[in-house]
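Students often ask what a holo structure prediction actually looks like on paper. The answer is less mysterious than it sounds. You provide the chain, you provide the ligand, and the output is a string of discrete structure tokens encoding the 3D arrangement of the protein together with fe (ii) ion.
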Amino acid sequence: FAFLVPNLTTYLNAFQNGCEAFQLPSRCRVSNFAAVHYMEKKAGFRTKPHSSFLPSSAVDLEVAASVSEMHDESNTKTSSISTFEKFDYLSHWYPVIWARDLPSNRPTQVTLFDVNYVVAKRVSEDSGPKKQEEVVAMLDRCPHRSAALSEGRLTAQGSFQCAYHGWSFDALTGRCLDIPQVENKRSIRISDKKKRIDGTAVPAMVHQEMVWIFPGGGLEQALKAPPPPSVPEIDEDGYRIVSSVVRDFPIDWTILLENIMDPDHGLFAHQVEYFDLYSASSESPQDVREETRHGGKGWSVTSTTKAVNSILEGSLQEKNKNTESEIKPNTFLSKERKEDDIPVATTTFDAPNLITMARRNPGTGKTSFAIAFWICPSGTGKSRFMSANVGKVPNFLKIPRWIGHVAIMNFLDQDTFLLATQQKHVLGKESELVLQYQKLNSQNEIKERNINLSEDTSHLKINIPVRRKFYVYQSPTERLSARVGAFLDATLSLVPNRLKSIQNLGGYEQVMQSSLISRSQVLDRFTQHTQICPDSMEVVKNCIQIQSACKVLAALPLLVKVLAFGNSNMVTATASLLHRCIINCNGFLAKRPVGIMGFWIGAAILSFLANKLEKEFYYKYTNDYRENDMDKIPSLWKDTV
Ligand code: FES
Ligand SMILES: [Fe+2]
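The corresponding structure tokens follow.
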């Protein structure tokens, strides 16, 4: 507990002042790291810079084509390409794990832009109101021999200790505190001028129930960066996060982002109608507005449309004209409503990774539904999906979290394999464009500027128009997708560690020749969700225990029968206690054959249900499920061609 107490109030007061000075919302709970470093800054100390992550200024090698021309129609207020140019992925906070999923006082690995970090929730041993929690994070690499710190432990004092040779590090500063094999530690500190024995601490905080880390440097950079984006409803009175979900996907985060903000696929990929409320049509067009925030460091785009069944109602009226078997949309919003009562369906993308979808009453502004998605950019070809339903639900109405997880896992399975098939083409195309670009420039411009692409590409800014060249936007709802696509095209080359991994894919042809990962790998719920969700893991363990208990209990009557077989069923005075017990049990059971049958049936049903539930947490969505789902489409969307 000692590590939490010293000068905490002073630090927090100082940090509060810091928040005001830098306009970081004070409700964000930044770890003591922030406070400590704010004090260091005041005192003139230098915090250790994360040299490999320092944001570098963009070098324009190509004047990017103006993507603002795309879908630049009257009701789309587009911003020019220059708003993207200032975007720096490293100058943003990223949510990496739900705070409730982070075990106390144990290191956990998270990944961001293909770099591993170790995060931990340090909890004091006190219970009750005095109990204190804070999150800390470091690069997941021990400076001694590069073993992962996440494989180690937290000491009783709250330091990260490497499991290999026991070096310990201050989790707030990264400073090496102990090298067990060295007696005179002072001499090491004095001789280690370059501080090579220190690890790299990373700013961390809890905000809206998630752990956020800042990969772009120390506190100084973190305070200058835009604060973590908020979902307004989460902080409003009466609202709360009703369910929080996490799942790691072998799908590139850019592709998952586009999938989530696309309501047009709900009818087909998920066979549901309510996505349609966010779709646009000629009768309820989509309005798209962009905003450059935080002095050009942040960018957001919002689409709004009337929450009506846009695709279904118009098309079905037409299709139902000459047919007997009429299909009617059946969502509650398809009923006749007064114009003023129709909620506004809003989708907001807060770059780089938050999508909020909500339905709000146009008159009162009250939210009837809100869901937020944070797509953590774990790396090229992967993502961590985190979502939260936000609602005005009384606290006593708490549905076990795993129930929501089972439902949403089934839902997510429906289109994730589709994304895997799409990803091959999109990443292949991105790779081809990067290689083409490098080839074009290798002899002239790059040479002139004396830049060697094969050595370091991280600071180069190039436009990779993969979406502009490869996607075909046709739907009236795709104005939003087109703008987000333009943002991605313009900024992908600045995504940390991306250019090299995309380059390594070897171009479109090479990617096409490689085999697609299997459905069971893409949809492997156990590694993607169950293992990282304590609530689901507990259900799995309970299911296994219930099944084992059922087997043992069901076998007991048989065991008694076998043991009693051949023994006299007369209990004599000299019989052993065990013998008496067996004979008595056997006699008891022999008189209750119906009871035993009932017991067996009950155990079999319980075991069957536990087995069924357990299976929900492993790979489930086979081709049979897909075919079954495809057969549901005609009940929503009439085949006419
Ligand atoms: S690698 Fe960490 S202590 Fe040796
Ligand atoms: Fe779960």
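The chain has 20 helices and 22 strands.
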